[in-house]
């Protein structure tokens, strides 16, 4: 029974990770946005042709992760670091749902600036979407750090030891790229940086799902705090 629940939990996390990478569809849907300079928030901005595609995918991802985190707290051992990770993942899921349903209301351009919101490379920073996005990013970083630390301390989450750590470093590097370059003149391909960052988050979620699935004796591997 426990194995079946764990498998279902792992599958939900993997599907959530895949759904979170729905932005890849922009390369086949012809959204009209330049991936080099545009931000993913613009894909599901109000009025965008394929807004529903990206919004629904993020809502599904967030819902699966929030539900998975709650389930994990009941069916998996409540070790301190793992608990921090699941709570952070729950927050990430809820923030992602909010992200998808509280979109920016305008995509600015040189010819059509937004009348009610400042234009620029970061239009979402002037919208409540900024809050949900910030909460989501901070939450998943906390989850990544907590679960990686849990693997090194307790063991049992083998996929997170190497692959998960590499993805954490990759996401951290691109986040630094975004934060530093945003304060410098020029665009520095920030759209690319964000896509690499979010791609790292998606791959890490899939890795977490694999780690859960491949840990059938997790209860026996974890040591007491």
Highlighted features:
disordered C terminus, mainly alpha, globular, 225 residues
Description of the structure:
- The protein is mostly helical.
- It has one domain.
- Helix content is 64%, strand content 0%.
- The protein has helices spanning 2-19, 26-29, 51-75, 80-101, 128-154, 163-181, 190-213, 218-221.
- Helix 5 runs antiparallel to helix 6 and helix 6 runs antiparallel to helix 7.
- The chain is globular and about 45 Å long.
- Residues 115-125 and 217-225 have low confidence and may be disordered.
- The chain crosses the membrane at residues 7-25, 53-76, 83-104, 124-147, 159-180, 192-213.
Quaternary organisation: single chain
Mean pLDDT: 84
Structural class: mainly alpha
How many DSSP-defined strands? 0
Give helix and strand order, one letter per element, not per position.
Answer: HHHHHHHH
Distance between the termini: 26 Å
Secondary structure: helix percent: 55-70%
Transmembrane segments: 7-25, 53-76, 83-104, 124-147, 159-180, 192-213
Organism: Antrihabitans stalactiti
Keywords: Membrane, Transmembrane, Transmembrane helix
Pfam family, one: DUF998
Gist of the model:
By secondary structure, the chain is mainly α. It contains 8 helices and no strands. Keywords: Membrane, Transmembrane, Transmembrane helix.
Describe the SSE topology:
Elements: H1 2-19, H2 26-29, H3 51-75, H4 80-101, H5 128-154, H6 163-181, H7 190-213, H8 218-221
Keywords: Membrane, Transmembrane, Transmembrane helix
Pfam families: DUF998
Protein name: DUF998 domain-containing protein
């Amino acid at each position: 029974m426990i194995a079946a629940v764990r498998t279902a939990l792992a599958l939900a996390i993997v599907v959530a990770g895949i759904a979170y990478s729905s932005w890849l569809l922009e390369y086949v849907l012809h959204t009209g946005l330049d991936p080099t300079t545009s931000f993913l928030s613009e894909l599901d901005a109000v009025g965008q042709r394929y807004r529903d595609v990206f919004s629904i995918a993020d809502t599904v991802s967030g819902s699966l992760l929030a539900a998975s985190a709650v389930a994990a707290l009941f069916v998996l051992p409540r070790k301190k670091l793992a608990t921090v990770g699941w709570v952070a993942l729950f927050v990430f899921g809820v923030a992602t749902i909010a992200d998808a349903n509280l979109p920016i209301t305008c995509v600015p351009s040189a010819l059509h600036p937004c009348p009610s919101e400042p234009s620029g490379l970061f239009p979402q920073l002037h919208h409540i979407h900024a809050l949900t996005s910030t909460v989501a990013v901070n939450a998943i970083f906390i989850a990544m750090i907590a679960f990686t630390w849990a693997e090194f301390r307790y063991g049992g989450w083998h996929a997170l030891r190497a692959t998960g750590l590499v993805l954490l470093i990759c996401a951290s590097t691109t986040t630094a790229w975004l934060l530093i370059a945003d304060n410098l003149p020029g665009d520095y391909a920030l759209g690319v940086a964000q896509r690499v960052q979010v791609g790292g988050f998606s791959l890490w979620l899939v890795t977490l799902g694999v780690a859960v699935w491949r840990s059938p004796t997790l209860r026996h591997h974890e040591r007491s705090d």
